[in-house]
Amino acid sequence: MRWSTTWSPSISLRRATGVCFLAGFLALGLLPAAAQDVEQRYQQAIELFNKPDMEGACELLQQLEPGYKQTKMYMNMACSQVKRLITMEENLFNEGVQFFNQGDYGNAKQKFEAAAKVALKNPKHRSDVSRFLKQIDARENEERLFQEGVRAFNEKRYAEAQSRLSQVAQGGGPKAAQARNYLAQVQAELRKQAAATETNRLFDDGVRLMNAGNNVDALTNFEKVVQAGGPNAAAAQTYIQRLRQISQPPPPRPTPEKKEVAVSKPPVKPTPSRPETAPRPETPTPVASEQTLRAGLQAYFQGNLEDAERSLSDYLSNNGQKQALAYFFRGAAHSTRYFLSGETDSQQKELAVADFHALKQRAGQFQPPQKKYVSPKILALYSEAVGAP
């Protein structure tokens, strides 16, 4: 896609002459087939511009002569918007990659989804954005399973923890190594639970056998319980002593020693000192030149919105006499950006409304330009902002 073309003076003269002849044919109603094709493409480009389909409008307008009607103005705005959308998609994608590499999947997903919504026919990073979004979904699912597994492990729900952490370990993502470490601990705890269940069964059977008078088998069960350890080991040892020495009482249990707990005093927090604020110096405001205002208006009508905003801002900051006019057309420039974005760039709308509000405060009786100079959408936004009928 080409963005600019250089013309020699002689070619420019011939083409300007051609435009004059074309205007004559239009006036007489005698329009050749080639001229009809040019006019048809021009109208099609304007329709695409108003949709807005900036890419289609830019491509069609670049095929026309810059001097034909308002081709140059529309081409500057459409192609500038295409460049801006391409840059927006590139920046959003790069920011998403940066967040993704930092493990901040929430912000990464937000950036990638915003990049996918940029109004371009063939975005540069469409396939990469789709791939990253799938990876983020997988990572978020992995993180969810991992956190659920860890929570189940801490709450001693080992079967549930094993199910969640096994999925994470098999997925091979960033959490796979940590999941395997937790799985090793889960397996150890499950083995302990199985051993505890078996020792409880041996202990209960030993008590039942002892009450039935089968002291030999009861003694065998209690000895296995003591070897396995666990909470029933001490009781099993007691039963062993009873079975071996029926006449002797069981040994007394040792009493635990009381430990003194030292109470530490909380540290004293230092009182923060208040920062000193330095006075702001006053800067003089020079008188703005009317040439700056004319440059801003000329740039606006040529479709160079950035130059228009810059010149009009300089004029306003230097206290120009025609403040209302400068505020209106700077707001019109912001409004144009807002409508060219398909009414999605809310920041440009806020800037436009702020300029219209400032205009009303400085010149309540300001009369906006006619519709043939400014878009009706911009005039409607201005009326809404200032409360005019």
Order of helices and strands: HHHHHHHHHHHHHHH
Low-confidence stretches: 1-22, 24-30, 273-285
Distance between the termini: 44 Å
Radius of gyration: 41 Å
Number of helical regions: 15
List keywords for this structure.
Serine Threonine Protein Phosphatase 5, Tetratricopeptide repeat, Methane Monooxygenase Hydroxylase, Chain G, domain 1, mainly alpha, single chain, disordered N terminus, 4 domains, 68% helix
Polypeptide structure, described:
The protein starts with 8 loop residues before the first helix and ends with a helix. Helices cover 68% and strands 0% of the residues. It has four domains: 9-80, no CATH class; 86-171, Serine Threonine Protein Phosphatase 5, Tetratricopeptide repeat (Alpha Horseshoe), CATH 1.25.40; 183-244, Up-down Bundle (Methane Monooxygenase Hydroxylase, Chain G, domain 1); 290-386. The chain is an all-alpha fold and 389 residues long. Helix 8 packs antiparallel against helix 9 and helix 11 (290-301) packs parallel to helix 13 (323-340). The longest helix is centred in the middle third of the chain and has 36 residues, at 176-211.
Q: Could you give the topology of this structure?
A:
Blueprint: H1 9-28, H2 33-50, H3 54-62, H4 71-101, H5 105-116, H6 126-154, H7 158-171, H8 176-211, H9 215-228, H10 233-244, H11 290-301, H12 305-317, H13 323-340, H14 346-362, H15 376-386
Helix pairs in contact: 2-3, 3-4, 4-5, 5-6, 6-7, 7-8, 8-9, 9-10, 11-12, 11-13, 12-13, 13-14, 13-15, 14-15
